[in-house]
Write a structure and sequence with these properties.
This protein is α+β, with helices and mostly antiparallel strands. It contains three helices and seven strands; from the N terminus they run αββββββαβα. It has a single domain (13-113), classed as PRC-barrel domain (SH3 type barrels, Roll), CATH 2.30.30. It is 16% helix and 30% strand. A seven-stranded mixed beta sheet has the order 5-6-1-2-3-4-7. It starts with 12 loop residues before the first helix and ends in a 12-residue tail after the last helix.
Length: 125
């Protein structure tokens, strides 16, 4: 059986890495560095976007709720409704300072972006 990286509705995680992320104004914000998948449901929970840095040094990573991204075929990348200023204040981590990825941390990500958590929790009022 031949391995396919992409169909009209599916894409391999390997091919998602490196895909550009834009805001709705068309500004390039970064690129998908990795995806985080919920072990139990198999659902993609987050796109980890790389932002900043030079030649891989000083790179920062922003976990974006997968539900906040929309694929734009014309741009060949994902679009989020964020400005650069919003992104600069968003949850971020460095490669040598990985987050704990517990529900408290994840809830903070969803609260910041105003997106319902992938595990079905409600946003605070």
């Amino acid at each position: 059986m031949e391995h396919r990286e992409e169909t009209t509705t599916l894409i391999s995680g390997e091919k998602v890495s490196g895909t550009n992320v834009y805001n709705t104004a068309g500004d390039s914000l970064g690129e998908v560095h990795d995806v985080m998948i919920d072990k139990m449901s198999g659902r993609v929970a987050y796109a980890v976007m790389s932002f900043g840095g030079f030649l891989g040094m000083g790179q920062k990573y922003h976990p974006l709720p997968w539900s906040s991204l929309t694929y734009d075929a014309d741009r060949g990348g994902y679009v989020v409704n964020l400005s650069r200023e919003q992104l600069e204040g968003a949850p971020v981590f460095a490669e040598d300072d990985q987050p704990r990825w517990n529900r408290e941390y994840e809830q903070g990500i969803h609260d910041y972006y105003g997106v319902a958590p992938y595990w079905g929790g409600a946003l605070p009022r």
